[in-house]
What does this fold into?
Amino acid sequence: MKYKIYILFLVFGILIFPKQSFAQVDFNKKPDDDLGQVEDKLQEHFFEALKQKGIENFDRSVESLLKCIAIDNSIPVLYFELGKNYNKLKNFGAAETALKKAVAKAPDNEWFLDELYGFYVEQNNIDKAIKTVKQLVEYHPDYREDLASLYVKTKKFNEALAILDTLDLEFGTSFSRDVMRNKIYDLTGRKKDQIENLEKRVDSNPEKESNYLALIFRYSENNEKEKAFETAKALLKISPNSQLVHLALYKFYLDDNNAEKAIESMKIVVKSDQIKPEAKLKVLSDFVAFVGKNPQYEPDLIEATTLVGDKNDKKTLAEIGQYYLAKGDKPKALEYFEEALKLEGDNFKLLKNTLLLYLDLQKYDSAIQKSNEALQRFPSQPLFYLVNGVALNQLDKATKAIETLELGLDYIIDDTKMEIDFYKQLSKAYALLNNTDKAKTFSDKAKQLETSN
It folds into this structure.
């Protein structure tokens, strides 16, 4: 739907009144008799109505417009403005009546029809909206797309598709129409029609990459993998520099046990600037599973993860870190987690993984520094107090460890295992200070919890 900018016309008095009205009212004529006084009064009320509308005094604007109509009820724009004011006042019945009068007095005025159409859409009066927009289609093809959308709402899918087909033939395809078309296919289950439409597009425009990609997707969705694979290869043949096609090809090659081609496609995907990180991760995830069964290709996977990491995407970096963690390569996993944290320092899961790896790899100074930073962001997370305390104990800073651990105890809620860990670390800290009584007290608390659970 399009809302026209006509206020400039109103302000300058251009096109406000149809030509036949100028014979009745000439706002530029100097009044020299009773008729002139009438014209002057009409102009005064009309511009008062515009002023009141501009400051959102819609009721007073209505009063001024009604005074105009009382003077001359033949001017369409008066009803047009009246209808808009009534709509603002939520007097919808009066708004419809006024707008219909404006249209009746000037049936060829696009602005009036568009306003009435918009009013019906706002009121969800689809039948009347359809009737009105049918009058508008002669002005602009966009109205035909509106009509198709209304047909979808009333489940007149064949009529909607007929309009979309006509528009595609006249103007070429468009994203908005394709969205509507696919919605119709989904609602009606017309997968075959959807595929046939895409096949025709490929035949009629064999150089357009998006047609092939859409067809590959729909073939795959419809479990027609052979056709999808053939279409992907056809696209690669006519467009050898296409990067997006490899999102499909790598999977087809894997399924076809063509590891070399799959690796080639995978590397193109992970290096591409046209492909989203989420899609790259899906490719990488599939290849991880493949390497699990074919470990001889692990060097290619490592190379691919390096290529993805170069893209500086926090989610990608974190996923690669998880991959190396699952492989048991903790130093490499830590490297990626640290890079990801540079991009997203408030990510709790990343902080947790990084801090635990610092402890595992005996990087205690780093653990203390990073856990202190984490506590600035998450002051009620007991895990960060625990990590801090563990690292301080490892560096023989028992007094500080006790201070941190006792603070963290207050934040533990229904987590017996963590509470046991706190007591063990407190016992260790007091033992470092040669306070054997306190050390035994916390050791006994830990043992008591372990026994009862």
About this structure: The chain is about 75% helix and 0% strand. The radius of gyration is 36 Å.
